[in-house]
Amino acid sequence: MTEAASELPPPGTRTVLARGRPIGYVMAVGGAILFSVNGSVSKVTLSSGLDSLDLVLLRCAGAAVALLLLVLAVEPARLRVRRSEWPLLVLYGVVGVALVQWLYFVAIARLPVGIALLIEFTAPVAVALWATFVQHKDLGRMVWLALALALLGLALVAQVWDGLTLDLVGLLAAMGAMLSLASYYVAGERAVATRDTVSLALWAFVIATVFWSLLHPWWTVPWATLSDQVSLQGNLAAVVVPVWGLVAWVVLLGTVAPFLLVIGALRHVPATRAGIVGTLEPVLAGIIAWVWLGEVLQPVQVLGAFVVVVAVSLAQLATSPRT
Length: 323
Prior knowledge:
Blueprint: H1 22-46, H2 52-74, H3 86-110, H4 113-120, H5 123-133, H6 141-158, H7 168-191, H8 197-215, E1 229-231, E2 240-242, H9 243-265, H10 271-278, H11 280-293, H12 299-318
Antiparallel strand pairs: 1-2
Helix pairs in contact: 1-9, 1-11, 2-3, 2-8, 2-9, 3-4, 3-7, 3-8, 4-7, 4-11, 5-6, 5-7, 5-12, 6-12, 10-12
């Protein structure tokens, strides 16, 4: 998924004790760390000769294969899909997975990793607004506070008083990723009512793979580039690795492993708390990109990032089920 997109709760999550278990928080933090590292890994990969379409196709296909093997090993019956499920699955796979992956890669290629993720992570605020205006749920003043803080934080991050210091295409891509991620949450909330999370993710990645295979056929991928040796750049410039190794990291340690960690965490802690732990991701991603790639943020942008994280946490709390 994108670095946030695998945090939907499996059926039965609401029965978990409110405080949760320590192992759940350890798994949630572990997933956030792997997703955060993946931001910098993906950025280096995108400078290797593969473009955003190549990488999103390889990531979706690789994740689909890995999850397929997992489902076949555990319970093949989960692969069955009723005819009535297909419209929602297609919407979920195309908008919630295929587009969010691509837009995320476009964003991190043009923006600092931490800022791109930060903008995408305002998706819970959009979900809260959807619940208020479309589903007519009364979420109270917390939604408006979250929205105000998110806008303030993003204004600080973008430094709008200085004529918008961020790349416009990257900014639009990050906002598009945010809207796609919000769609992922909304559609996923309906989908998990009848399907377990792992098989849902599997079909989403399969559909995303088919979608990108049609728009960006496999023969257009520069396969020879995978055998090239590339520098890890920044403070790791002296380290040289094959491009296929970076792609393997993106698929296995940047997608499948953190996804399984977050799903495992949701068996021990409530979804809302796991989601709030997930807000560590843009913060950690920014720190990793700073240490590794030298992407330095201005103090006012750091303040804006903190304000956005608070806004996302409030939005998570506003949309949490009352138990």
